[in-house]
Amino acid sequence: MTLILSPNMTQPDPFYAALLSAHEGLSDAESQSYNARLVLILANHIGDFKVLSQVLDAAKVGSLGDDS
Amino acid sequence: MNAVFDVPLYPYQRHADQNAADPQRHQAVIVGAGPVGLALAIDLAQQGIETLVVDDNDSVSSGSRAICFAKRTLEISDRLGVGQQLVDKGVEWHLGKVFCDTRKVYEFNLLAESGHRRPAFINLQQYYFEMAMLERVRVLQQQGAPLQLRGGNQVTAVVSESDCVRVQLTTPDGAYDLEADWLIACDGANSPVRHALGLDFVGRVFEDNFLIADVVMDANFPIERWFWFDPPFNRGQSALLHKQPDNVWRIDLQLGWDIDRDAEKQPEKVRQRLEAMLGGDIDFQLEWVSIYTFQCRRMEKFRHGRVIFAGDSAHQVSPFGARGANSGVQDADNLGWKLKAVIDGSAPRELIDSYDSERIYGADENIRNSTQSTDFITPKSTLSRLFRDAVLDLAEHYSFARGLVNSGRLSVPCVYDDSPLNTPDGMIDGPSRTRPGAPCPDLALSDGYLLQRLGGSFTLLLLNIDRSTAVDDIDGALKRLVLDSSKDSTGALNERYLGSAKQAVYLIRPDQHIAARWSTFEPDAIRRALSRALAGGPAR
Questions:
Q1: Alpha carbon of B347 to those of B341, B514, B536: distances in Å?
Q2: Which chain A residues touch B if contact means CB-CB below 8 Å?
Q3: Domains of chain B
């Protein structure tokens, strides 16, 4: 199995809106906790360690400074 | 109160070696009469190796210290002749519960698989473990085994030569010198032998303090391992409650890094903390209290010439997972037969190098596991705490998260997958748990248990193989055990050793790890595998 990085969501815009609204009214600390729970639940859904390793790598693009 | 660990069991006595004009020579000198040193001493003496154990102390360890002894340790102890005594005295437990605040978030059951002689774990104070070993030493001595134990003998200098190790011992009567063919340092995390040789011991320090208390009380808590994250009585920290024999309960309380250690050790302060935990109406006595910090580290190599390190002197782990004493006893188990073969001249010195590679592999596995547990129990950054708390929150609601709760992954013996002693698997489709390098899983037989029958020498285990086809004389020293799976109504023999195969041949080492296996009986292949396991690797 390979990590899907091409469009795969059935309803991308509604999901994005739902994600933001889930955070609405939360303090920064609560938002962080919520995100942590989110990561763990999604990770379990994916399951396969190889794919999860690809996820961990794929997410590095933004925060670690993509020079290109 | 005069605790058992205050009584001198092997007080200093002047020995003739101290009057000799020249240093006297011994085949094996073991430094340290703790669980590891005593296990190794018994193993060597049972094999007829002349063995001297020296210790600067003269009694068993003070306080409970190591309390969880795993099945593999009990199986090894059976081979050393003390297993039954340990199990009779120990407290057997199966259930572990994990609480967060006041809520139970997870529980696990060690639910032992059937067909094993020994339970997954017993709790037993380290001093009782040592006492059982000391009694065995006395029995062996009475039977004439070449085994000596000298208390009040402190190692003050060690020089490793190419043909021997020179040791200086200091006693109440002054110093004297000895020579050893092999010196095995089982002298603990602060190993004087390691210091004397100027060897490194690097690793990761965990900045945390734990209060550890042995509490004597008549409490009707169940015999279970209880672990708390962030309990009301120890906010922001962890706690552990576990039963030992004699109504002694082990309590561990995490205290954090920035504390006044002396103040925390005061009985009044300890009492306050314990009352907060146990409630004010329980009457208890403190048997032993200590504050400890820990590190996860190992030596780069466990063998330095003729000096070999075993147990905490070679590797140190956090206490979560019961991987300290248990892994040290496995070190002794791994080393005993190899030393015997090398001293006898039936194996080259290279065999000892496999102790290094196999037990370093084991130490790394233990360090990895205990480090991961420690990172979960005592998160050291805001982010690691965030994820830890997320796991605990989810664990209450969803089963997947319970598997992530890590309050210590309990000790299991490692599989020496890449050992140079292994012959490539001749039964690729066979059960994974009995692949080359694995410790033999036990089995109930009609007259006892499999591991009892394997004893302490190389054994050929023949499964569903007609005795008459297997008469080929491979090696007189090779013990044989023939089993027929049709006579095993439990199906365990099939499941653990055969899988889909109709028959199998296993070559089993003296430490009960599997060296090779095949689905057919081929004397040449067996001969090659045996010589590989004894030579320390494939023919060079």
A1: 5, 18, 8
A2: 32-33, 36-37, 39-41, 44
A3: 25-91+120-201+296-368 (3.50.50.60), 203-295 (3.30.9.10), 432-535 (3.40.30.10)
Q: Do B401 and A40 touch (CB under 8 A)?
A: yes
Mean local confidence (pLDDT), B77-106 = 95
Indicate yes or no: CB of B387 within 8 angstroms of CB of A41. no
With bands split at pLDDT 50, 70 and 90, how would you rate the model's confidence at B466? confident
Token pair, residue B79, equals 């081979």
Cross-chain Cβ contact B387/A40 below 8 Å? yes
Chain A, nearest residue to B392 by Cα: A37
Residue B73 to residue A44: CA distance in whole angstroms: 35
ipTM of predicted complex: 0.92
Contacts of A32 in chain B (CB under 8 A): 386
Q: CB within 8 A of B322, min separation 6: which ones? A: B66, B67, B68, B69, B70, B121, B408, B410, B411
Considering only the beta carbons, identify the residue of A32, A37, A39 that sits closest to B393.
A37
What tokens does B270 get? 């300890």
**Beta carbons within 10 angstroms of residue B144's beta carbon:** 7
pLDDT given for residue B135 in this prediction: 97
Task: Determine contact: B389 vs chain A, CB below 8 A.
Answer: yes
Mean pLDDT of B377-385: 91
Residue of A nearest to B389 (CA): A33
Q: Which of A36, A41, A44 sits opposite B386 (nearest CB)?
A: A36
Estimate the crossing angle of helix B350-377 against helix B523-535, to 10 degrees.
70
A:B CB pairs within 8 Å: 24
pLDDT tens for each residue of B110-131: 877 889 999 999 999 999 999 9
Any chain A CB within 8 A of the CB of B391?
yes
Average pLDDT over residues B359-375: 93
Task: Give the residue from B368, B404, B403, B400 showing the smallest Cα distance to B388.
Answer: B404
Residues of chain A contacting B404 with CB distance shorter than 8 Å: 40
Identity at B150, one-letter amino acid code: R
Query: pLDDT band for position B470 (50/70/90)?
Result: low
